[in-house]
């Protein structure tokens, strides 16, 4: 049995979102990550998380399109979220959903190949 494989040519562009979220609730952040990735139609290949012994949390979603990472900083009640992806539309959808989430989001950097891009309207 022969299986025909196909591929899509992807030019080397990375769309990045780097924001601070005023919340360190690990259950909420993990659920938010899962939900926003699903709604933006990212394909999750793997997920790993680590709870640090004293305090703090890191979660990483390995995506077909790149990755999402969340790191908590409980002393300041902030979490850092970074999404890197090679699909501009999915990245913009994720960002718009994040802004609509009701969480307090401080925009750190939103970039396309190092240049700012505007979220979808």
TrEMBL record:
<keyword id="KW-0670">Pyruvate</keyword>
<dbReference type="InterPro" id="IPR016067">
    <property type="entry name" value="S-AdoMet_deCO2ase_core"/>
</dbReference>
<keyword id="KW-0456">Lyase</keyword>
<dbReference type="InterPro" id="IPR003826">
    <property type="entry name" value="AdoMetDC_fam_prok"/>
</dbReference>
<keyword id="KW-0068">Autocatalytic cleavage</keyword>
<keyword id="KW-0210">Decarboxylase</keyword>
<keyword id="KW-0865">Zymogen</keyword>
<keyword id="KW-0620">Polyamine biosynthesis</keyword>
<dbReference type="GO" id="GO:0008295">
    <property type="term" value="P:spermidine biosynthetic process"/>
</dbReference>
<keyword id="KW-0745">Spermidine biosynthesis</keyword>
<protein>
    <recommendedName>
        <fullName>S-adenosylmethionine decarboxylase</fullName>
    </recommendedName>
</protein>
<dbReference type="GO" id="GO:0004014">
    <property type="term" value="F:adenosylmethionine decarboxylase activity"/>
</dbReference>
<keyword id="KW-0704">Schiff base</keyword>
<dbReference type="GO" id="GO:0005829">
    <property type="term" value="C:cytosol"/>
</dbReference>
<dbReference type="Pfam" id="PF02675">
    <property type="entry name" value="AdoMet_dc"/>
</dbReference>
């Amino acid at each position: 049995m022969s299986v025909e494989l196909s591929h899509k040519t992807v030019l080397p562009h990375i769309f990045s979102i780097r924001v601070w979220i005023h919340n360190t609730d690990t259950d909420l952040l993990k659920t938010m990550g899962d939900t926003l990735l699903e709604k933006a139609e990212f394909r999750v290949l793997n997920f790993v998380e680590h709870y640090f012994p004293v305090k703090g949390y890191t979660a990483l979603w390995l995506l077909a399109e790149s990755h999402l990472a969340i790191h908590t900083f409980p002393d300041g009640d902030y979490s850092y979220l970074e999404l890197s992806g090679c699909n501009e539309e999915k990245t913009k959808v994720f960002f718009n959903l994040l802004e609509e989430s009701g969480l307090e989001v401080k925009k750190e950097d939103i970039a396309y190949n190092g240049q700012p891009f505007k979220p979808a309207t």
